[in-house]
C-alpha cells in the first residue's frame, strides 16, 4: 500500500477512512493503514493527511448520517439517532487508532484539533442539534414521554439511550441534555399536572385527590428514575408537587365536604371520627412534604 508515493498514500487513507465511517471497515489491515499514516508523517506530509481526514470526518455526519436519520420512519425515528451515535463514536475511534502518531505530532506541534476530539462536536452540531433535526428529535422524545404518561406502551430503552447520548454530547456538561430535553420536559410536565389538578380537584374529594396526587408523584419519580438522567428525578418531583399540591393547598384544605376544615366539623360518632382522622392524616402527610421538596 505504501509504494505509490505520498499522493497515493493520502488517497488510500482517505478512502479507508470513508469506508470505516460508512461501513465500519476499510478493506485494509489495521497495521497497513497505521504504517502508511506513519510514513506520511515521516515524509513531512502529515498536514495534508490530517486535513484530508478532517474533511472526511466532517463530511460524513452532514451528508450521510443526518439525511439517513431524517429519512427514517416514525417508528424508528427515536431509535435511529442512538444507533448512528454509537456507530459514529466507534468508527471515529477506529480512525484515531490508525493515525494515533499523526494526531500526537500535529495536535502538539500545530495546535490543531484531533480527529477524535472533532467527532463529538461534529455529531452534536451537524446531527443531534442541527436546525432541521433538533426540533424533530426533541418533539419525538417529548411525545414518547407524554404517551407513556398516558399509559401507552412506548420504547423506553430508546428514551433512556437518547438521554444518555445528550449527556455525552455535552462533553462534561449537562447543557445539551438540559436544553434539548430536560427543560422542555419539565415545562410540559408542569402544564400536564396543572390541567390534571384543575380537573381532578373539581371532580374528586380532597382525600381521593390526595391519593391521586401521591400516585402521580410516585409514577413520575419512577419514570424518571428508570429512563432519564439521575438529576431529573428530583426536578420532576418538585414540578409535580408544585402543580398538584403546593399551588392547591388552600383548595385542598378548604374543599367543601372533604377538606381538612370540613372533616374537622364532621359528625361526632366514634367510628366516623376514626375514619375522618385517617383521612386528615393522609391529607396532612402529603401536604407536609411540600416544604421538604
UniProtKB/TrEMBL annotation:
Entries under Pfam families matching the protein: Cullin
UniProt-recorded Gene Ontology molecular function terms: ubiquitin protein ligase binding
UniProt-listed PANTHER family: CULLIN
Similarity-based family: Belongs to the cullin family.
Protein name per its UniProtKB record: Cullin N-terminal domain-containing protein
Species for this entry: Amblyomma americanum (Lone star tick)
All copies of domain Cullin N-terminal, residue ranges: 13-289
Gene Ontology biological process: ubiquitin-dependent protein catabolic process
Top-level taxon in the UniProt lineage: Eukaryota
Family matches, as SUPFAM superfamilies: Cullin repeat-like (SSF74788)
Gene3D superfamilies for this protein: Cullin Repeats
Lineage of origin: Eukaryota, Metazoa, Ecdysozoa, Arthropoda, Chelicerata
